[in-house]
Amino acid sequence: MQAPCPGQAEHAYPGPVSPFLRFTLLRFTLLAGVAGVLYLLGARGWLWLGLTAVISTGLSYVLLRNVRDQLARSVDDRLAGRVQQRSRMQRGLDDDSAAEDAAVGDAAVGDAAVGNAAVGDAAVQDADVAGNGRSAEARDKD
């Protein structure tokens, strides 16, 4: 066997043919083969199209069972991978949300203490204005 040239891949195609592409190509090949045989046997028009569809569907159900099963497994594996990826992402989002809630909760406790002090200062100013009729700032200007 001849060694590949530098820079040339060993295989013309980098990976295996996907099960979907393989099943589709085999179905079309089977359809074309049945259509050709029926055409040679003299079927024409709508009869030719109808017989081609019915016969090729039946043959593909029987002859392409293994390929169809591989396709189904491939789809199932991809779906299972996406479900796992989504659950990992959801766990990460839940962890981030919990950390954010904890940080917001700690900040809210600190803000409440500052807010209570500010409310107390405002209450003292309001009482001062009510008692003297003037605010402390107006008295300081005099």
User: What is the structural class?
Assistant: mainly alpha
Number of extended strands: 0
Taken in chain order, the helices and strands follow as HHHH
SS field, number of helical segments: 4
Ends apart, CA distance between termini: 107 Å
Shape: rod-shaped
Integer average pLDDT:
75
Rg, Å, rounded: 39 Å
Give the strand content.
under 5%
**Largest beta-sheet characterization:** none
Features of the shown structure:
81% helix, 142 residues, mainly alpha, single chain
Report on this model:
The chain has 142 residues and is mainly α. The protein is 81% helix and 0% strand. The protein is built from 4 helices and no strands. The chain starts with 18 loop residues before the first helix and ends with a helix.
Explain briefly what this protein structure is.
With 142 residues, the chain is mainly alpha-helical. It has one domain (19-119). Helix content is 81%, strand content 0%.
Spell out the blueprint of helices and strands.
Blueprint: H1 19-40, H2 45-63, H3 65-132, H4 136-141
